[in-house]
Fold this protein.
Amino acid sequence: MLINLAVSILAGILLAAAFPLSFAPDAPQWAWPWLAFFAPVLLFVALRRAKSALEAYLLGFIAGGVLHLLGVYWISSFGAPALVSLVIYQAFIFGFLGIALHIVLRFQSDSYNYVLLPAVWVAFEYLHSIGAASFPWLHLGYTQYENAPVLQLAGYGGVYASSFFVLLAAYSVFHLFWGRSPMRLRLKSTAFAALALLVLYLGGCYTYWAWNRAEKLMPATTIAVVQGGLASNEPWNLDEYVTAAHQAYVGTTLNLLQRRLQHRPELVVWPEGALPTFYNLHGLQLDPDVRNLWTQREDLKLLMASLLRTDKGLENAALLFTGPNTLAGKYSKNHLVGFGEFVPFGKALRMLDYPWGAEDLHEGESLDPVPFNESSVAVNICYDSVYPSVTREQVRRGATLISVLANNSWYKLPSGAGQHAVFDFFRAVENRRTLVRAATTGISGFIAPSGRQIAAIARNKCAWLTEQVPVNRAVSLYTLWGDTFAIVMLIIAVTGVAYRAFVGVGEDIF
C-alpha cells in the first residue's frame, strides 16, 4: 500500500510537470510536455497493484490532488482556501477515474485495453467538462500544444483526440512491461500500437504542412491587438489606475492609428478589463477620450470588453464599435467564474464583494458571433475559451475569425496566464480559424488555423501588434461533428467498465 501511494504521488508530480508551471512571481514558467507520455504509466502500475476499489479510489485521489496542487498552484494568488478547496474537489473527482482504471487493469485479459483504457480517461475528461461545477483545465491533450502533429488531431476530435494519442502511447509502454499477456504477444501488440501512433503522427505532420501551405492562399485581413501591461493585482489607487489604463489603451491605440502602416488594421481588439468602466445598453455613451479615436480614423472598428447594464442585469460583455456612438454588435460572457463573477447559491452563501460591488454578473444567453465586415467574429471572454463548445458554436454560426479577450493580470504567477493561453491553440485548430488573443498583461497575439503562432507580445509589456492574418471559411470536421469522438469514447468506456466490473467480481475487484 505504501509503495502504491508513493508511486501515485510521483505520478501526480510528473503529470503536473507536463504542464506550464511556476512557483514564484518573478520565476519563468517551465514545462516538460514529454512527461505526459510516461507519467500515466506510473499511475497504471499503482492501480494494477491495488487490492480493492477503495484503495484504487485513494490512489486516484492522491494522484489527482498532487496534480492539481502543483498544476493550479497559481490559484494561490486568491488565497490558500481557494487553492485547497479546488484541490480537494478535483482530487475527489479524480478518485473515480482511479476506480474505473483499476477495474480495466485488474481484469484477467488485456484484450481491447489499447482502446478501452484511453477511452476511460478521455471519457473522464469529457464528463469533467460538463456542468456548472466543471473545471476542464488539466486535460492531458493540452500538454501537446507545441507538438504540431499531435495538435492537428484536434481538428477532428478536439482536445480529446490529442489526449487519446497521449494515453495510447502511455498504455503501450505499460503493456509492454507490465502486461499480463506472454511477452511475444505483448511485443506484437505494442508494435501494432506503435505503428498506429506513427501513422497518426505522420498524418499530423502532413496536415500541418498542408494547412501552412493553404494559409498562404487564403484571403487576409489586418487585425491589431493592444496589450496594456497593467496588473489588476497591484495596490492601485483608483484614480491612478483609471489614468494609467486610459494611457495604456487609448494612448497606445492613438499611437497605432497615427502610424503610416502598409496595411491599416480593419479591427482593433482590446482585452477584457482594459478600462474600468460601466456602460448601459440603453443610452450607451463611450468615454470622450475613447470617442476621440475616431478623429484619427473614421472607419475604425474597435472590439472591447466592459461591464454592461442590461434589462437582465450586469453582464461581462464584448462590444464592437464602428463609430463613436455606433454599437455594431455585442456578446456577453457565457461561462462565468464561480466566486469570481458569481457566487453559487449566492443568497445563501453571500460572503464577498467584487471590485464592482456585491452584484453577481448575469450569464450571457446568446452564442451568436459579432458581425464583422461581410462575416462575423467569434468572441470568447477569458474563461469562455476553456470550453470548446462556445467557440465551436459561434464558428458553426458563421464566424470566420476567433477572438479571445482575457484578463489574466489577477494571477501573481506566470503559469496561470501561460496555461490559459494553451487552450487557444486548440480552439484555433479545432475550428481551423485564425485566433486573435488580446490579454491585459499577456500573452497577446495571433494563432493561425494550423496552430502556428504567427506573432505574440511579451508578457507585462505595453504594446500593440498588427498582422495580416489568413481568413478561412471552410468548416472543419470538429466544427461539423463537435464532441462526437469524446461521446463515442464515453460509450466504449461505460460499456467496457460495466462489463468488466460485472464479470470480474470474482477477482476481488471490489
Remarks:
- Residues 220-471 form a domain with the Nitrilase/N-carbamoyl-D-aminoacid amidohydrolase fold (CATH 3.60.110.10).
